[in-house]
Amino acid sequence: MASFPRTGEIAAQVKAVLERLGVCQDRLAGPNAAYSPLTGELVAHWGARSGAAPDLAEAPGADPLEAAIGRAHAAFLQWRSVPAPRRGELVRLLGEELRAAKADLAALVTLEAGKITSEGAGEVQEMIDICDFATGLSRQLHGLTIATERPDHRMMETWHPMGVVGVISAFNFPVAVWSWNAALALVCGNAVVWKPSEKTPLTALAVDAIFARAAARFGGVPEGLSTLLLGGREAGEALVDDPRVSVVSATGSTAMGRAVAPRIARRFGRAILELGGNNAAIVCPSADLDLTLRAVAFAAMGTAGQRCTSLRRLFVHDSIHDALVPRLQQAYGSVQVGDPREAGTLVGPLIDEGAYTAMQAALDSARAAGGVVTGGERLGAEDALDAYYVRPALVEMPFQADCVAAETFAPILYVIRYSSLDEAIGLQNAVPQGLASSIFTTDLREAERFLSATGSDCGIANVNIGPSGAEIGGAFGGEKETGGGREAGSDSWKAYMRRATNTINYGSTLPLAQGVTFDVG
C-alpha cells in the first residue's frame, strides 16, 4: 500500500544527513531556499555562492565568480605538472571517501531529488565506479606512435591537460554527472569548477565536503582545484563566457544547449553537451515479452520518468500489440507510487510543480491528437500539498504527433503500432533528439540491422535492454539535438585534453615530407 510523507518531517532528516556528511553550518546560511520534492517543504538555506569556503573570502569589490575561476586556473597551472598516476591517487581517495559516505549521500539524493532508495544508492555507486575507472586511466593516457616516410624520424602524439573544466549539471543526476566529468578531468590534469542545479544545492555541498576530505588525505592539492559555484543563471554564464574555462560540460535542455553553445564557440572554447533525449524502443514479433515488460517498466517509470535516457516512445508490432499493451496497462495501474524512502516504492515524486504542469500539458496535447491516456493523475496531495506525485501515464497514440516528438520530462510513455521494421526505425529516428534507443527481438538480423548505419541514429543503441541505466565503461551521449558530447567511459577522456602531434628527427640529415626539396646550400 502506497504512502506519502507528510509535510514537516523532512527538514530534520536533511539537517542530520548534512551534519554526518560534514557540511559546515555556515555554508547553509543565505537568502536562497532548498526544497525537498518529497513534501515540497523548505529544508535548508544556502548562500548565492556559499560553495566558497569561508577562508577564501573575496577582497571587497571583487567579482566572486571571476575570482573563483581565477583560483581554478591558478590551480590548473600547478596540477598539470603533477604526474598523471599521482593525480589518479587523488581520485582513488575520492572513491574511498564516497564509499564511506555512500549511505548518507544516497539518502540525501533521495531527500533532495526524490529518487527511490535503490536509485539514490545507484547514483553514488556510479560515482565510485567512475573513480575506479579514472584511477586506472591515469596510467593509460597514451597516444600513438605513427609511421613516418622520412628516415631517422619518429612521429607520435601526446596528450596534455586543457585547463579549467566547467561542469553545469541538472537536478535529475545531482551528483553523478559531476563525477563523470570531475574524475576524468582531474586525472587528465585539469581543474574543475562546478555549477549544480539550483534545485539540488545540498547534494553539491555534500560532495564538495567529501572531496575536501579526499584532498586533505592527499596533501598538497592546489587551492581551487575543485570549486563549487552555487547560484543561478549568472554562475553558469560565467563558466560559459570566461576564456579561462577551456572546456564546458553542460547537461540540460536543448534550449539551454542552443543558448550556451554559440557563446562557447564564439571564444573558441570546447563544449561537451548532454541535452534532450526522446528515447524509443521497438518491440518486434519475436521479442521475449516477459523480459520486454520488465525492461520497459523500469526505463519508462524509473526516476519518475526524469532521466535523460527515460523511455518515452514505444513502437509495438501489430502482431503482438494485444499481448503486450494490456500487460503494460496493468503494470502502470499497479506500480507503487509514493514515499521514495519506503522499500516497496518504485516511483517517487516529480521534482516540482513545473514538471507536473508540463506533464499535464503534454497529456492534454496527446488527447487532442487522438491519444487514449491511462494514468497521469496526481496522487497524495492530501498529505503534501506542495509535492507532486503522479501515476505514470501510458498513452496509446494513433500516430507520432507533435507532442510525441517533443520531450516531456515526466513519466509519459507513448505507444504506437507499426507493421514493418523499416517503418519502426523511421519513426524512431524522426525526432530531433538522438540519445538512447532499444530493440527487443530474438531475430539476429533485426538486431544487427538496428545497430547498423541504416538503423538507430542515437548515441546509445541497445538490444533486449531498455535505453536507460547506462554503465560508466561506455561513452555516454547522443547525436542531433542531444548535443554530440560524450562523457564517462571509452575514450571520452580525450575531450578533457589537447592533442599534440610530434615529429622527432634523430638523424643528421633533413629529408622533407612529400618529396619536397628546398636546399639553400
Automatic annotation (TrEMBL):
The name under which this protein is listed is aldehyde dehydrogenase (NAD(+))
The answer on whether this UniProt entry bears the keyword Hydrolase reads: no
Q: Signal peptide position in this chain?
A: none
MF-aspect GO terms: aldehyde dehydrogenase (NAD+) activity
Q: Where is the active site?
A: E274
**PANTHER family (UniProt xref):** ALPHA-AMINOADIPIC SEMIALDEHYDE DEHYDROGENASE (PTHR43521:SF1)
State whether keyword NAD applies.
yes
**Keywords on record:** NAD, Oxidoreductase
**Any idea where the Aldehyde dehydrogenase domain is?**
62-499
The family annotation for this protein states: Belongs to the aldehyde dehydrogenase family.
Record note on quaternary structure: Homotetramer.
